[in-house]
Write a structure and sequence with these properties.
153 residues; two-stranded antiparallel sheet; alpha+beta; 2 domains; 4-stranded antiparallel β-sheet
Length: 153
């Protein structure tokens, strides 16, 4: 790996992606210099149901749909972005707590890193056992320290 001066590193760190794209890392450009690796936001998040598609290391969190499919959230503050990319009709421009509440009213469940453990956020009236079972399976797959009541599953 090439050594960079502070100015070169800071320039790479500060580079932004185009509107509608997000940075997933850096890569070597055509001239051999490091450039941003930008992907369309819609392609950065995808709905999965196969555990073969889970990343090797536990990500920042997940959204789990009422039918048990999941969305990997690889970075802090990516939960809202994932909802907006995949479920714009449910979220309807809401952000933060309003987006979270709207998603939960549609039976979705959030698994998010909170310090060294993971926390679950869901609505007990709308979230079914399929979503809870997927959350439990993901928690066991990564040996996550999740504190929640999964009785009856």
């Amino acid at each position: 790996m090439a050594a960079y001066t502070f100015k070169e590193f800071f320039t790479i760190w500060e580079m932004k992606c185009w509107k509608g794209y997000r940075k997933v890392g850096t890569k070597k450009g055509k001239n051999g210099k490091r450039v941003n690796d930008c992907v369309k936001i819609n392609e950065a998040y995808k709905l999965s149901s196969s555990f073969m598609e889970l990343p090797d290391n536990p990500p920042h969190g997940f959204w789990i749909t009422k039918d048990g499919k999941y969305i990997v959230v690889s970075r802090m503050f990516g939960h809202d972005e994932a909802l907006h990319a995949l479920f714009p009709d449910i979220i309807k421009g809401k952000v933060g707590v309003a987006a979270l509440q709207s998603a939960m009213k549609h039976g979705m469940m959030r698994v998010a890193k909170m310090g060294s453990n993971y926390g679950l956020t869901y609505h007990p009236m709308y979230t079914g056992n399929t979503a809870k079972k997927t959350a439990k399976d993901i928690a066991e797959f990564y040996n996550m320290g999740i504190v929640d009541d999964f009785e009856g599953l």
